[in-house]
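Re: that backbone. Tokens:
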């Protein structure tokens, strides 16, 4: 359980105050999320910081999506069934297996 979901009295003790400047658009998003969840804006900021600072990227780990970056979804093959079509999958496996073999001379 994250700190933000714990006892609400926790925040009245041992908390330090910091000041953060946010662009108006981001400030509006924080306010809207706080209102939607019926929590304080400070709670939204704390939870976001916790996620950002304890996530894979903060530990130097990168997901496949992080490594691919903007390439994910950038190309279209025209086929909607590439991941489920068994014949296409089998053909891809065979093609990839052939690429790994060295040619005899």
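Recovered sequence:
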């Amino acid at each position: 359980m994250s700190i933000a979901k714990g006892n609400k009295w926790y925040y009245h003790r041992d908390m330090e105050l910091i000041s953060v400047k946010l662009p108006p658009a981001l400030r509006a998003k924080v306010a809207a999320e706080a209102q939607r969840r019926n929590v304080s804006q400070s709670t939204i900021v704390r939870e976001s910081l916790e996620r950002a600072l304890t996530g894979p990227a903060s530990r130097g780990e990168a997901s496949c999506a992080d490594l691919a970056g903007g390439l994910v979804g950038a190309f279209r093959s025209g086929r909607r069934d590439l991941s489920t079509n068994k014949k296409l999958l089998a053909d891809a496996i065979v093609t990839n297996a052939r690429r790994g073999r060295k040619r005899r001379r």
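Residues 3-75 form one domain. Residues 57 and 105 are 46 Å apart (CA to CA).
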